[in-house]
Amino acid sequence: MTNGDYLFKQVYDYVLHRIELNEWREDEKLPSIRNLAADMSVHRLTVLKAYQLLKQENKIYAKDKSGYYVHSRAKSNFENLDNPIISAYVQKNHLSEIHQIPVSYDFSQALIDPNLLPNRYLSDYVKKVFDLYSKVLSTYSTIQGDGELRETLAHYFVHHYKTITPAENLLITTGSTQAIHLVAQAFVKARDTILLERPSYSAAIDIFRAQGANIVTVDIHPDGYDLDQVEFMMKTHKPRLFYLNPTFHNPTGYTVSAAQRKQLVQLAEQYRCLLIEDDAYHDIYFDQEPPPPIYTYDTSGTVIYLRSFCKYISPGLRIAVMMGHTSLIKSLLAVKSLADNGSPLLNQKIFLHYFASARVQQHIEKLRIALQIRKELMERVLGATDWRWTSPNGGLNLWVQLPSHVSTEELLAKSLQQSISFVPGQICDPLKQTSSWLRLSYSYSNEEQILQGIRRLIDQVHIPL
Ligand SMILES: Cc1ncc(COP(=O)(O)O)c(C=O)c1O
Question: pTM for this structure?
């Protein structure tokens, strides 16, 4: 896709999304071509082209010499719009819609099989926490998160990455989903431009979209980014932030090199663009530890670091941490106080005592071996096809390209009938193009399910719809 195509698609998506959210209502006048072009830093012809396509699709109409208006028929294309009060607030999480469909072979969840998680041990720590803190259920956490937990995590980061961040600069969140949400609310206003990887973590796309962001993208490749493209996008669009997942990236599994990490920080400083580093998979590596987080190269407060512990310790406890410069954490704290006034104290204390124990390291080491075995098994079964992927060195997913005539959206429809699910590439694409890519998680299913389910999935490609 050329840069012109990207820009066109972004304007088209932006306008359509405002109509979908009912922010621009039936018969309301759209911004003039000149104003929207200026707001979105694109050429007027790009806006004209997007308006013309929307007109052709009956989403908008033109009045002579007056401009473009929202068409009444636009509404019928969007779900849940009967009730105008509800319709103004409808937001989508495409990934969770797939997760809610019960299936026997679930390759859509980037989660770890509960049989590989420390369920048995965690109950010991529940008891310990109630013994140690008799009032734990009658007390709120501080908004920023339990002090003891923040101190422990601050030491952990010094020990692992030689990065000193005081506990005052840590903020405990209810999973990194909440952390992304807080970033969006604290730093992004409607129409602000932000930069995302293409593809990207689907829920993050939905969160930033719901905030009304104007999304521009850079491609992520097996060896990282094309830094010229990153620089071009930063220079041209002046994004407020770049949300990125540079270590065992979801959905691709790719990892950005140490050299690129350093250069990214320099670019972000030069163009005054916040880097939001989402690092949910750092510890889930197979042969070799990944490079240190981008955050460790930052000396000027350009990076906000998000680290979730949900995936490999306990999704049920929902513990993640954000780290960053004092002024950034201050803004995030204000939003966090409005969100929930602090994450549950009981969860933080249980997590703290388990995380500080020697058992964690043993658990992670065993987990890496189990996940590598499952990944290799999935790759072996897929080896019978002409599908292509780059084998990841960590993380939970394979990002697989099918022959170009296969639409993975259609394949999903067929597969669900056979009780198999996966994530179609389109929902990981901020530009929402149809795609022959899909994400297969090898971490949630056991070996028997992988063997049978992937064989069945391969069969679906040859069965007509
Ligand atoms: C890149 C990335 N960020 C964040 C999350 C959400 O994690 P959490 O469970 O901490 O909300 C996920 C989950 O799949 C993810 O892949």
Answer: 0.82
Domains and CATH numbers, the chain: 3-77 (1.10.10.10), 87-117+361-462 (3.90.1150.10), 119-357 (3.40.640.10)
The rounded Å distance from CA 203 to ligand 1 centre is 8
- Amino acid code (one letter) for 164: I
For residue 187, which of 37, 388, 335 has the smallest C-alpha distance? Answer: 335
The verdict on the CB of residue 440 being under 6 Å from ligand 1 is no
Q: Is the beta carbon of 312 within 6 A of some atom in ligand 1?
A: no
Least-confidence region, from 81-85, 147-151, 441-445: 81-85
255 Cβ partners below 8 Å, 6+ apart? 224, 246, 247, 248, 249, 290, 291, 392, 393, 394
What confidence tens digit (pLDDT) does each residue in 202-244 have?
999 999 999 999 999 999 999 999 999 999 999 999 999 999 9
Task: Name the residue of 176, 197, 309 whose CB sits within 8 Å of the most ligand 1 atoms, as the mutation to test its pocket.
Answer: 176
Q: What residue owns the CA closest to ligand 1's atom 13? A: 110
What pLDDT score does 333 carry? Answer: 97
